[in-house]
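User: Before I run my own analysis I want an independent prediction to cross-check against. Here's the chain; please return only the structure tokens and, at the end, one sentence I can use as a sanity check.
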Amino acid sequence: MGEISGSRSLYFEELAEGLEMVSPARTVTETDVVMFAGLSGDYNPLHTDAEFGRQTRFGQRIAHGLLGLSIASGLANRLGFVEGTAIAFMGLEWKFKAPILIGDTIAMTARVARRRELRRLGGGVVVLAIAVKNQRGETVQEGEWSILVKSRPQ
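Assistant: Structure tokens:
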């Protein structure tokens, strides 16, 4: 189906199965990792200890998996496709497929996988198939997000 890369709010009726949205990219920085450790309280040495990181199979520190998910959420927000039309984020299923390294540049794609109208709630549930890829085209995280989206006003 079509592809969206601009910023425009969409109603439930406009989010057809197969519609794909592609985010801008963003580089994951040292500052991101340090700030996320402080915010979350997750000071696992895999993320915060350079000497420890060098001894791992990754050869360096890696970003927190939940930091990658949080950045993906922000990238989706930058697309603006449900800004003002989202009623609620209902849930997610998520897989951490590969590490995100400090300095990696990631982007996300969201494809409408399924949808179900819920008139009593004023819209419907849209299930988005999400893929987060690094600059090498490797999928580092993927899953599905369920969002309750408003119907177009009468």
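Sanity check: The domain at 3-150 is CATH 3.10.129.10 (Thiol Ester Dehydrase; Chain A).
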